[in-house]
Amino acid sequence: MDAFDPLLDTDLTFPVDAADGAPMVLESGHIVSLQFDESAIQSLMFRNAPNKLVLGYTRTMMSFLLLQPAPARISIIGLGGGSLAKYCYHHLPDTHVAAIEIDPAVIALRDAFQIPPDDGRFEVICADGVEYVKGREAHPDVILVDGFLACGMPAQLGTADFYAACRARLADNGVLVANFLETDPDIPFYLDEVRSVFGESFSIWLSEDGGNYTLVAWKGKLPSSNTLLTRARSLEAEHVLDLCSAARHLKQRERPVLDRRSWQARVN
């Protein structure tokens, strides 16, 4: 989910008869967008580059490559328009990608966003992501959390119980990445919950293009600065991502000073 930018396409207009909270595909000559209302974009696709990561926060979420450059399995909580799922499927050919989406109405729109059909290493699962991570049938190397409803991020995706289930589900040296809206007043609470599960093994920073925060939490030991930067430069030859910047954020275990009272005063 990202803040709406009307400059992206002046022909992109919201239908006057759109049902409240229902996922809606908006189309123009160049862009296809998934939205629940006029205020925020859930997903954005360029017609001439359907697998491109258009929104900055999606590119920042790919920072997991610094810790898991060749993951065997990725689980994505929240399908939306499939930006992350498509990118991982097409650019990580040895990786199994599972996208978990609670809303069948969102899944029904997959063809509009050129989301590939299920096959041996790609699947879309209609399920509650909170319940899904409690399972034990697979242990992904990476869990990406980008689940949003019309009202914002479900509260269940920001609790210690959820983060603990994610950590238990992850493979050894696994990575959890979560997307938060920059204006979410509960970010300090989420970080307290993350810390109770991952200790100090996490970093959070403002996503590329702003408007969102990206949280990265990890099991195992964080690589050295030299290893992270070397890996970032190598990966940037294959991916259009700012991974060198992400490497610095990770190594510094960067996080804003998020006193709850001052944070809520800032965003309200």
UniProtKB/TrEMBL annotation:
Residues 1-226 form the PABS domain. This is Spermidine synthase. Belongs to the spermidine/spermine synthase family. It comes from the Bacteria. The active site is at D146. The keyword Transferase applies. GO terms for biological process: polyamine biosynthetic process. One of its GO terms (molecular function) is transferase activity. The keyword Ion transport does not apply. InterPro entries: PABS, SAM-dependent_MTases_sf. Keywords: Polyamine biosynthesis, Transferase.
